[in-house]
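user: Please review this fold.
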Amino acid sequence: MLRRSTNWIVVHCAATRPSQDIGRAEIDKWHKARGWSGIGYHYVIRRDGSVEVGRPVAEIGAHVEGHNSDSVGVCLVGGLDRDGQPAPEYTAAQWSSLHGLLVGLHAHYPAAAIVGHRDFPGVTKACPSFDVSAWLIDKEGLSAPSPTT
């Protein structure tokens, strides 16, 4: 089903340790095992910084309950430290790719706010294990107001 509006660009993490180099294919298997039609994220950023397309960007995702129909989901592989605790232990290549992807998405969806999954009311996860708003402060042309609905 096609998305009719895009109010949010949501940054997620795969909740994997730094030693786990997974990508779109593995996440697709995980999501299918949950009974979904396939990967819920629109983009996956691997440890080497490569960006993989997940669900087609024009389609409704499956990544933020209550906001799938008006958001684009970007997933960073990682988000946990070696002990399995939430931590933004992403590679320099991932940070660079995230910035580039968000700039491009924001240009395509200029009215969309860029936020972390954890910023939505009722979300109890640490995902993506960093404060997206604080990270974006120094990123020219990007903004991240907090979700209120």
Observations:
- The first strand starts at residue 8 and ends at 13.
- Residues 8 and 71 are 5 Å apart (CA to CA).
- Residues 92-108 form the longest helix (17 residues).
- The chain has a mean pLDDT of 91.
